[in-house]
Amino acid sequence: MAEYARVGFLFLNFRRITKMGMEQKEDVYNTFSIVQEQLADCARILNLSEDIYSILRSPMREIHISLPVKMDNGKTKVFHGFRVQYNNALGPTKGGIRFHPDETVDTVRALAAWMTWKCSLLNLPLGGGKGGVICNPKEMSEGELERLSRLYIEKIWKYIGPDEDIPAPDVYTNPQIMAWMMDEYSKIAQKNQFGVVTGKPLLLGGSPGRGDATARGGLYTLREAAKELGMDLGYATIAIQGYGNAGYYAAKLAKELFGSKIVAVSDSQGGIYNADGLDPEEIQEHKRKKSSVVGLSGTKRITSEELMEIDVDVLIPAALENVITEKNAHNIKAKVIIELANGPTTPDADDILYKKGIHVIPDFLANAGGVTVSYFEMVQNLTMYYWSEEDVHSRLSDKMSQAYHSVLSAAKQYRVNMRQAAYVVAVSRVVEAMKMRGWI
Ligand code: NAD
What we know:
Layout: E1 16-20, E2 25-29, H1 31-46, H2 50-56, E3 61-70, E4 76-87, E5 93-100, H3 105-121, E6 127-134, H4 142-156, E7 165-169, H5 175-189, H6 213-229, E8 237-241, H7 245-258, E9 261-267, E10 270-273, H8 280-290, E11 300-302, H9 304-308, E12 314-317, E13 336-338, H10 347-355, E14 359-361, H11 363-366, H12 369-383, H13 389-414, H14 418-436
Parallel strand pairs: 5-6, 5-7, 8-9, 8-12, 12-13, 13-14
Antiparallel strand pairs: 1-2, 3-4, 4-6, 9-10, 10-11
Helix pairs in contact: 1-3, 1-14, 3-14, 4-5, 6-7, 6-12, 6-13, 12-13, 13-14
The chain binds nicotinamide-adenine-dinucleotide.
């Protein structure tokens, strides 16, 4: 059952590598090495044995594929993709698929590990996985994207399924892509298999409330943190890095649910700031027309890096990894950080933020709303009975609140930061399941 295949890849023992470009020297972080460092820290806190630790530190299975896609110009272009199934002790693996030009297998491994801890932390009967394709969807036509999405499923269908591994959307993938993937899998299986992916359109077995679930879940944890910290969210100022699914809904819902003031947002083109507050819908409309938040009238242009250091109550990284490092952590002024992005903070930065007394709600807690509603989607697909949106919100609120308080209790009990506490809760459950199954 446990297939801990060593597939001949080298794990980097250092988390920071130096990439030499033609003209410049650039520091980059290896996200999977960061995951391993976080896990090593957890193994030390929990006093895990070497055999348990050695199972947890590597993916259970990973699939590497090449994807020759006929492009609109008649030529064939070969893309490279991955699916990593990290650990299935608690159930079938689950995790999104990213389409991104900078995708690497180490990022996918890291994201698959975080999915394992996330599902465990939320008490979902699921393990963790993740997928990715190195491509730039912004430069591809709809037809090219459809062919790529269908081919991805054709190449991995043997290793996925409602009881095996269930993909979902992530950066630059969306419900339409999930619909194509579900359809391709169903064609191969020769029957409708709506449960093979989540994040589908409503008409094809999607769940009400999945669209804004990641941001909503994160804001439910902010609500709990605010009670703990005595913060009135009605007067809170918020800066958000990234204005895609997670970032846009975070802005919209923070205003709707709490009446908070969004003062800065950014995307891959740069950022905008207005001390008097920004209107999330106006920004979204501008981004729809101009493909960026930049240039909205009445706003000051800032960089995405400057946004991180603005004097706000709440900072929400909602884009990509490693944006809070030892270089800028000292300058962060927010009282609370909600990590909607996966892996936005490096371990060195974590130490700095903890010493500064900043309350960090770590990624695999803060952004767990997405997979939680994906799990609700799986339940609804299985029972063929669909819940109301209010029902989804209320169940999500309960789940996020329970997870937040389990982490807060562990942080107090073990006298560790919130990320270490989240690891303690999540990894303990995975270890317990592995022991019960006789893997160790
Ligand atoms: P998305 O593709 O909808 O949006 C990503 C946004 O980030 C875009 O606005 C893009 O312009 C912006 N961006 C890219 N590079 C940037 C940079 N250097 N500076 C500022 N902004 C930049 O993706 P998403 O689904 O919103 O995911 C965002 C993050 O949230 C990712 O880390 C993802 O793994 C995580 N997450 C998403 C979900 C989900 O359900 N969507 C669930 C859990 C975690």
